[in-house]
Amino acid sequence: MGRNRILILGGTTEARKLAEALAGRAELDVLLSLAGRTATPLPHPVPVRSGGFGGADGLARFIVQEGIELLVDATHPFAPRISANAAEAVAKTGIAGFALRRPAWESVSGDRWISVADMPEAVKALGASPRRVFLAIGRQEAHHFNAAPQHDYLVRSVDPVDPPLQLQRVSYVLSMGPFHLEDEKRLLTEHGIEVIVAKNSGGDATYAKIEAARELGIEVVMIRRALPANMEAVDSVAAALRHVDQVAFPAAKRGV
Fold first, then answer.
1. Quick one: average pLDDT of 199-204?
2. Burial tier of 26 (Cβ tally within 10 Å: 0-12, 13-18, 19+)
3. DSSP-derived secondary structure letter, 244
4. What's the Cα-to-Cα distance from 100 to each of 51, 175, 202, 229, rounded to whole Å?
5. Which spans in 157-222 are helix H?
6. Whole-number Å distance between alpha carbons of 225 and 233
7. How far is Cα 190 from Cα 180, in angstroms, rounded to an integer?
């Protein structure tokens, strides 16, 4: 009996954990795909490919050529294009597919959130008066804030912002989560941060900045997620594993 081929579209903690959980199963052949945007990605326990597919049609061709039987979209909640391509490719090829989406954060008592739809709205939400701003949005979209040079910026990302922002008052921190509450409070205090710009990515790895903002009374400009792609979704690695066993490959459970 041949091995069941699974393609995981990754780049998230959940994708790595799912790959780890499936790696030891002899009846499954797992391939993890990364966008290739991180210069030094963490090691993974399954074969990895890097780079794009060429849109939904390219992904569909790859699925057919490689004999993929199940696609799991475990990309970042703020990667709507690849999620849309994944949903379209699954529909085109007729294979099984589902998304692994961690739940979004929800505001609680003490949070001072300003909810916005996208980066341009986030720029406007900072206002006209100079403020000390912590950009906790990664490097890909930091350039939007060139439009508001009156502020002082602290930018945190895994890899350097390239090209650097065209701002007079900006500093950079290169760091990868998970982050811890006391460290985040220290960072915000030492830099005199007055407002944080963040994406509602959910999960535990970067939530400490939200907790720190709450405890310090700091405002958060929170960028909402776009509507998800039209694909069945689960919200945890445990649920994804059950889906693999019960829906995608019910005869391929361990020991069967």
1. 92
2. exposed
3. I
4. 20, 25, 12, 12
5. 181-190, 208-216
6. 15
7. 16
